[in-house]
Specification:
The protein is an alpha/beta fold. Helices cover 31% and strands 26% of the residues. The chain has helices spanning 22-31, 48-59, 86-89, 99-106, 125-133, 164-174, 190-201, 233-246, 261-269, 307-314, 333-340, 370-382, 393-396, 402-408, and strands at residues 3-7, 12-17, 38-42, 63-68, 71-75, 83-84, 108-112, 137-141, 144-148, 156-158, 180-184, 205-207, 213-217, 225-228, 248-253, 273-276, 280-285, 294-295, 320-324, 344-348, 351-355, 364-366, 386-390, 412-416. Helix 4 runs parallel beside helix 6 and helix 5 (125-133) runs parallel beside helix 6. The longest helix is centred in the middle third of the chain and has 14 residues, at 233-246. The structure holds ligand EPZ.
């Protein structure tokens, strides 16, 4: 398994391009199942999760071509299967996103239950209840979600909690249903909006995306479209935390600052100087960060996907910070590893109290999940001496060539391939 070796203590300087958003590209690739025409996507990041999704679509018989580094075309005109197998789904729970489109277009789908993951049990009961509300005959059999529906019927669906992929699955199911569907308590994430924008280009009739009430009027079929995936706000936020911890001055190109309000204001509170334009962000830090309290929240609140990264910054900050993780039940796996680097953190249930220290010292640490990996890299950039981050296959799921981008900014970081 690959590792990253980081020599800490070097400020960052320079500029890098932000890649397309993983969490927009994943549902958008699955939306290609909704038409026999070709859907052409640009700004698709080269990530392991994207490769897994393309592998799953190919197993269904979808023609997937990566014409260039970031251009992907999807043509679902000759499907040979309607099943997402456990072997694939267990490696990426977002595979559940084929359920809605398969059911909407083909009237049936068999998708393995994803099972939990490091950050939590992560059930899909809301997806199932929502599809049942749309008229699907849906049950769990032998570890699979088995769904059938001659024709889905529009309905008012209110999820018990805000669920990003739940909203996306139900939106993709509703676009071909008979009549009107209203999704209440819908997720407002920019990635949900990006999916809706693609679906509208494909001929869907959707209003209210970006709010907690999305109205979808079903149509009989969808056609092909061309779409550019939005920039990854979590990748961008991770690099902002990196310059906050290591110091220096960086520019992020191809970014979308308007989707990063909560992250940018928290980092300004921590002491970063941040300027931004339409598609760029400039951030500099030349002093010790200040401790910032925060609690994770659905968009537009502070993203849970940024929690581990900002915690890494807080470990070095002046003062004590209190962090509340309100979305997932077990998203503090990075804490044990940050302690190995000399951080001072106490966990009490869903709250972490971080007492800032003046220095971290490099050590060997183990990545446990995607954003925890980023947190350890950020801490390693600031730690004295050498930090070895193991099991970085977690990192490769959601960050495109992170070590290359950090090296371009002057970090001393290299991949050790096993
Ligand atoms: C999406 O996961 C993201 N993944 C996650 O990003 C992100 O952390 C999460 O949203 C929250 O923002 C993708 O978009 C592919 P949820 P998702 O359904 O949709 C509970 C990353 O790092 N819930 O919004 O799976 C759930 O357990 C990944 O890029 C149910 O109980 O998250 C959680 O506590 C990690 N039943 C809460 O809701 C359901 O049916 C929010 O989960 C669905 C969700």
């Amino acid at each position: 398994m690959d590792k990253l070796r980081i020599k800490g203590g070097y400020a960052l300087k320079g500029e890098i391009n932000i890649s397309g958003a993983k969490n927009a590209a994943l549902p958008i690739l699955c939306a290609g199942l909704l038409t026999a025409d070709t859907v052409t996507l640009s700004n698709v990041p080269k990530l392991n999760d994207i490769a897994t999704t393309l592998k799953l679509l190919r197993q269904l018989g979808v023609r997937c071509e990566r014409a260039s580094d970031d251009l992907v075309s999807i043509t679902a005109n000759q499907l040979t299967a309607l099943e997402a197998p456990y072997e694939l789904v267990k490696t990426m729970r977002a595979s559940i996103l084929v359920l809605g489109p398969l059911l909407a277009r083909f009237g049936e789908a068999r998708v393995s239950l994803p099972g939990g993951c490091a950050i939590g049990q992560r059930p899909v009961d809301q997806h199932i209840q929502g599809l049942a509300a749309l008229g699907a005959d849906i049950k769990i059999e032998h570890g699979f979600v088995v769904a059938k529906a001659k024709k889905l019927k529009g309905a008012v669906v209110r999820t018990d909690m805000v669920t990003v992929t739940g909203t996306e699955n139900l939106m993709m199911a509703a676009v071909l249903a008979d009549g009107q569907t209203i999704l209440e308590n819908a997720a407002r994430e920019p990635e949900v909006v990006d999916l809706a924008e693609l679906l509208i280009k494909m001929g869907a009739r959707i209003k209210g995306h970006g709010t907690d009430r999305i109205v979808i009027d079903g149509v009989s079929s969808l056609h092909g479209a061309t779409h550019e995936v939005i920039p990854d706000r979590i990748e961008a936020g991770s690099f902002l935390c990196a310059v906050g911890a290591a110091g220096g001055e960086i520019v992020l190109r191809h970014a979308a600052p308007e989707t990063m309000g909560a992250t940018i204001s928290k980092l300004q509170e921590a002491g970063l100087t941040i300027k931004s334009g339409k598609d760029w962000i400039q951030a500099s830090m030349h002093k010790r960060p200040k401790a910032v309290d925060f609690r994770t929240h659905e968009y537009p609140g502070f993203a849970t996907d940024m929690q581990a990264q900002l915690m890494a910054l807080n470990t070095l900050a002046e003062g004590t910070s209190v962090i509340a993780e309100t979305i997932f039940e077990n998203r503090f796996m990075h804490v044990q590893e940050l302690l190995r680097l000399g951080a001072n953190i106490d966990i009490d249930g869903h709250t972490a109290v971080v007492r800032g220290v003046t220095r971290l010292s490099g050590a060997t640490v183990m990545a446990t999940d995607l954003r925890a990996s980023a947190s350890l890299v950020i801490a390693g950039l600031a730690a004295e001496g050498e930090t070895l981050v193991e099991r970085i296959y977690h990192l490769d799921r959601g960050y495109e060539r992170m070590e290359h981008k950090l090296s371009a900014l002057g970090a001393h970081i290299e991949r050790i391939s096993s």
